Amino acid sequence: MWEGLGLQVFLMCLGAVLCSAVDASAPLEHSHRHRLSLHRHRERTGKEGQVLHRSKRGWVWNQFFVIEEYTGPDPVLVGRLHSDVDAGDGNCKYILSGEGAGTIFVIDDKTGNIHATKTLDREEQAQYTLTAQAVDRATNKPLEPPSEFIVKVQDINDNPPEFLHGPYYARVPEMSNVGTSVMQVTATDADDPTYGNSARLVYSILQGQPYFSVEPQTGIIRTALPNMDREARQEYDVVIQAKDMGGHMGGLSGTTEVKITLTDVNDNPPKFPQSVYAMSVSEDKVSGEEVGRLKAKDPDLGENGLVSYRFIEGDGMTVFEITTDTDTREGVIKLRKPVDFETKRAYTLRVEASNTHLDPRFIAWGPYKDTATVKVMVEDADEPPAFMATSYSFEVEENARDGTVVGRVHAKDTDVANNPVRYMIPRYTDVEQFFSVGPEDGIIKTTRPLDRETLPWHNISVSATEIGGHHQDTKVRVNIKVKDMNDNAPEFATQNEILVCENVSPGKLIETVSAVDKDEMVHRQYFHFSIAPEAVNNQNFSLKDNRDSTASIYVTRRGFSRMTQDVYFLPIEINDNGNPPMSSTNTLTIRVCSCDSKDTILSCNVEPYILPAGLSTGALIAILACIVILLAIVVLFVALRRQKKEPLILFEEEDIRENIITYDDEGGGEEDTEAFDIATLQNPDGANGFLPRKDIKPELQYPMRRIKNCCLISMKKTMRKPQQQTETGRSCSTSIFLRKMNSTKTETVFFHKSSEKSPLSAQFHQ
């Protein structure tokens, strides 16, 4: 590759030298042409006698070329500039400006030679635009207008092709035909596609043959072998090369990897790894339990590998069923109904496994299914006893005596041992213990008379337990119906009173009565109504049996009077015509009411008729109002009296001297002033600092205190002078004072003991 690059560099350098020689001769021609044009111009000026100043370009620019990636020791000569105004005396100075001027491109200001001082890369920049100008060296004034020229970088094949999007991943279905397109890869080359063959690419496959191929011009990868099987090999690593220079020697190349995966198609049928499967199931398993699993293998993936299972023949197709486990793709065999070891001990089934999704392109490769044989052995288990029926129904007469046989249940041990069975009734099914069962024979009997009206059905369970073994038990439902007996008398359906107007007309229907019976009514059985024998001769009401379990009550007299009798009782006998017949006597209550002319009931009470006839409703209201007012006045008066309370303490203002006992004993006269103390008489208790309370009862009785030298004096005034007044002397020697208290009143008793002549006298002060 580097040999080709060196050859290209050499050729490009040779071309540049030739171009430089041509460009160098061009300014000379331009200069000669310019000098010639200037000479002619001067001649015309001389002839015409005037000078014309016209700006004229002294050179014609061509495009300059420089080869890229030049690595020689000296700068590359790009070209030479020369102006006609340059006389060669050194006064003309060349100036270069623009892209890369002074850094990449430099100019000799005397000769006008332009050199490239750095290595150029066309892929970075393909051309440069520069501006050249000739100025006076001394004054720097322009001698010529500035002109632009272009330096193009000439391309060499220095960039290999690149796959920008690699590595690549592709998928193609297995079993594809030869030439099936897999994908297209594309490489890019940074070299100039318009110059030579540097960017003309050719594709080839370096790895992946003989399975795949690639088109040289387009890069399309295709299958090269038929019937590539994913199950044999799923992935392929392919290496693709892109080479420039049209694929010739000396061109640069680049490679990329392509990982190709074969996708699955349904090209494989399911296959059982063995032809016969052996399974077993215990006879105590219930419906829906799993017996076993089997799997047909299918190497395909996804829906192409889905397998469904079914029974196609066998003697257990009604006993077993098979389903598909979508997660494991296995066929699951389950019990459809229980098996019995004593009845059948082995089953044979034929199972078919088939694909659910078929590919039409490969149907001819079929069939896409396989079969296998499954043998199921039934294992013996210690089973509980089995009743001969799933449930039992019996009937028993109502009121049958205890010990009456209701029925019999029967169970047996289905195992080979055939152990005996014991029966019992679980108490939770017969809480009140109406029935009993024989532990050995299974005979159900009553334990007491049954009442159909209380409980018409008895639903119990009977348990059968195997004696020996694992004592397993089983239960059966027993429904016992109590047959009805006519043991209840009929009675009125309702017990409402019948209201009848006082002015009712004879023969009027006042009520239709009906009856009910707790017993069952047989077909065409009805109740018979009649008036009880003790009331057959009543003159007020009559009864008509309607023969449809109802009776009509009629009035037989004209009018009633509530003042005379307001309630009538009519006994009616009801017979149910059963076997045996039952009857009862029910009393019908009939109340007489006051009605208006339209037979509308106004009142059924008798109280208004015992009031005086002359009083109206308004008068009664007035009387009641007066009574209420009088009662209010009395209550108010009593309340006021209770608010006025007596003082609790006997104050000094209550002078005892207002109560004076008068008696005819002589005293000491006016001179006898020491015989008594008037303060003590006014308030005997106050003398000792004690004031009695009137609102409480004293806890202790105060003892009698003897008051010495105390007399009650009665002054008798006469018409005499004061000094002639008759005085009652102090003839009493002792006065006894007693005070008695209670919760309601206070009594003060004075006992006065006078002289021998006077008897004991007392006064009560209340």
TrEMBL record:
Pfam families, per the entry: Cadherin
Give any GO molecular function from the UniProt entry.
calcium ion binding
Signal peptide per UniProt = 1-19
Q: For this UniProt entry, which segments traverse the membrane?
A: 609-640
Protein localization: Membrane
Gene Ontology biological process terms, A to Z: adherens junction organization; calcium-dependent cell-cell adhesion via plasma membrane cell adhesion molecules; cell migration; cell morphogenesis; cell-cell adhesion mediated by cadherin; cell-cell junction assembly; homophilic cell adhesion via plasma membrane adhesion molecules
**Gene Ontology CC terms:** adherens junction; catenin complex
Q: Which residues form the Cadherin domain?
A: 83-163, 164-272, 273-387, 388-492, 492-610
Q: Which UniProt keywords apply?
A: Calcium, Membrane, Repeat, Signal, Transmembrane, Transmembrane helix
Query: Which SMART domains does UniProt cross-reference here?
Result: CA
Query: InterPro entries, alphabetically?
Result: Cadherin (IPR039808), Cadherin-like_dom (IPR002126), Cadherin-like_sf (IPR015919), Cadherin_CS (IPR020894)
Major localization class = membrane
Q: What is this protein called?
A: Cadherin 11, type 2, OB-cadherin (osteoblast)
Task: Please give the organism.
Answer: Oncorhynchus kisutch
Q: Where is the organism placed in the taxonomic lineage, from the top?
A: Eukaryota, Metazoa, Chordata, Craniata, Vertebrata
Which gene codes for it?
CDH11
